[in-house]
Specification:
Blueprint lengths: L1 H26 L5 E7 L7 E7 L4 E8 L5 E10 L5 E9 L2 E5 L15 H19 L1
Antiparallel strand pairs: 1-2, 2-3, 3-4, 4-5, 5-6
């Protein structure tokens, strides 16, 4: 009897794992790799990589040994968005850190920026309340 329950248990586990694997491929279908190239560092530290998938994801960079021992790199990555446009980022990574450039990135408003009227009204109201409480 124990052999039957162990066998049944094993079958249930195998079927569950198989069902999860099939469901995963239905939810997240496999993505074909169209291009994948890597150039390992040469004696001067120069290296590069390029990756492209059939779903539109693209990533590439090239780099070299930096003067301070780190790696200086330039590159870009992009992917298609739901609206059909392509999101892209260009970057430099060096002793000054990661420096991305893209229309996707938020831009700090110019300073001094105009203060909205409702904010000015709230400031004036707070000043009036201060005066009122000081008189009490």
């Amino acid at each position: 009897m124990k052999l039957v329950s162990t066998t049944l248990y094993t079958q249930v586990v195998i079927l569950t794992v198989a069902a999860v694997a099939v469901a995963d491929t239905l939810v997240y279908p496999p993505v074909a790799i169209l291009r994948s190239e890597q150039v390992n560092p040469d004696e001067f530290g120069a290296h590069s990589s390029h990756f492209e998938a059939d779903n539109g994801i693209n990533f590439q960079f090239s780099g070299s040994q930096g003067p301070d021992g780190g790696s200086d790199m330039i590159g870009s990555w992009s992917y298609p968005q739901e609206d059909g446009s392509v999101a892209s980022v260009k970057f430099v990574a060096d002793k000054n850190g990661y420096q991305p450039q893209s229309d996707l990135l938020p831009v700090v408003p110019a300073y001094p920026h105009p203060i909205p009227q409702f904010v000015l009204d709230q400031i004036a109201f707070a000043e009036e309340e201060k005066k009122y409480k000081a008189e009490e």
